[in-house]
């Protein structure tokens, strides 16, 4: 039990998206713009492709896929994940299809990828591979060439596919660290050369420089909270919408009143705010934005109540809006969005108790997407 009053009856609004959002017509994309393939009004088939860090070596068992799906859902983007594998936590990961294969090397993907591509015909691929090539110097040294060949195979098999190629997570062991650093260093150049040759390939720094030692389950796998940070980078690359995350448990970001910090690895940054249970409980974020406008605030929240719960949210003392959190579990976190006007310069955004109970991990801030 994470809250003192969790047994109280809750409202019974179920099945709704967290935020009702009516998309405006999308502007016509530029002819030479492969970089932003996932638009609000365009159904898109996305294949997550890779190894165990696509499957998910974390406690939730979804790697970046759960939070990426949540971020896309919060915008109302019609994305269909595709692949021959189906795994991960139902609910928080609304589409469990993928093409992640635990323990696989680049060469193993090379041997199977053509069949997967012709079967599922994705519009977009998120490729993260190479961790299992880092075991020794020889295989690590061969990894860039194998990645180059794999990119050629993918783009030749599906010339219209938009291929996003990621860095791989940095590993703590000194030998692995050096190999990963060397491999990650080569990836932008490999991708740039393919793009210069006319292929629709883009590099995503999904992982490098992102994690602390406490962000790892083991030598090889970022934990669930850490994977959510990689998901932000994937989302931004896929949509062209940069997100800034503010951790609720960091005192520099937020003032907490009559609620408690909870340390747990499912939360981004290793912590979240629980016990937002009382009329005077609040989490008040303070941050700056460069320009005035309507911003999308995505709250990463944990709700294990078995029904939709909510917070009241207001910006700079203005009117309260409601952000609704579907119930997944206390250890599976969703991204629920609300759009609020912000000022140029400093802002405060205050979360207070709504219906039943939800814990607050972080907020992910951007301008409201226009495409
Ligand atoms: Ca957090």
TrEMBL record:
UniProt-listed InterPro entries: CBM6, Ester_Hydrolysis_Enzymes, Galactose-bd-like_sf, SGNH_hydro, SGNH_hydro_sf
Residues covered by the CBM6 domain: 244-366
Cleaved signal peptide residues: 1-18
Keywords, alphabetical: Signal
Statement: the UniProt record of this protein carries the keyword Signal: yes
Heme keyword on record: no
PANTHER family xrefs: SGNH HYDROLASE-TYPE ESTERASE DOMAIN-CONTAINING PROTEIN, THIOESTERASE 1/PROTEASE 1/LYSOPHOSPHOLIPASE L1
Name of this protein: CBM6 domain-containing protein
Lineage of producing organism: Bacteria, Bacillati, Actinomycetota, Actinomycetes, Propionibacteriales
């Amino acid at each position: 039990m994470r809250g003192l009053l969790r047994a109280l009856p809750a409202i019974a609004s179920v099945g709704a998206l967290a935020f009702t959002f009516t998309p405006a017509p999308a502007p016509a994309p530029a002819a030479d713009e492969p970089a932003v393939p996932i638009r609000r009004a365009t159904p898109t088939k996305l294949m997550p492709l890779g190894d165990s860090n696509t499957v998910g070596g974390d406690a939730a068992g979804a790697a970046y896929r759960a939070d990426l799906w949540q971020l896309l859902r919060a915008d109302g983007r019609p994305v269909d994940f595709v692949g021959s594998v189906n795994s991960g936590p139902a609910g928080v990961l609304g589409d469990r299809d993928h093409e992640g294969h635990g323990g696989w090397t680049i060469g193993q993907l090379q041997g199977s990828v053509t069949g997967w591509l012709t079967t599922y015909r994705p519009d977009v691929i998120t490729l993260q591979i190479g961790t299992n090539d880092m075991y020794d110097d020889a295989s690590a040294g061969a990894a860039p060439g194998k990645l180059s060949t794999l990119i050629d195979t993918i783009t030749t098999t599906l010339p219209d596919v938009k291929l996003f190629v990621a860095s791989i997570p940095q590993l703590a062991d000194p030998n692995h660290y050096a190999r990963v650093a060397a491999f990650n260093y080569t990836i932008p150049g490999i991708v740039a050369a393919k793009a210069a040759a006319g292929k629709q390939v883009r590099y995503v720094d999904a992982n490098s420089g992102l994690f602390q030692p406490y962000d790892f389950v083991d030598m090889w796998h970022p934990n669930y909270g850490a994977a959510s940070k990689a998901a932000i980078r994937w989302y931004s690359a896929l949509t062209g919408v940069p997100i800034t995350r503010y951790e609720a448990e960091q005192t520099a970001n937020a003032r907490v009143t009559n609620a408690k910090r909870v340390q747990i690895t499912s939360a981004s940054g290793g912590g979240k705010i629980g016990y937002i249970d009382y009329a005077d409980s609040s989490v008040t974020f303070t941050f700056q934005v460069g320009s005035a406008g309507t911003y999308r605030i995505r709250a990463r929240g944990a709700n294990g109540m078995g029904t939709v719960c909510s917070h009241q949210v207001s910006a700079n003392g203005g009117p309260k809006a409601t952000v609704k959190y579907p119930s997944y579990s206390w250890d599976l976190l969703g991204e629920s969005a609300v759009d609020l006007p912000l000022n140029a310069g400093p802002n405060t955004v205050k979360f207070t108790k709504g219906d039943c109970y939800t814990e607050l991990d972080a907020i992910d801030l951007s301008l409201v997407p226009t495409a």
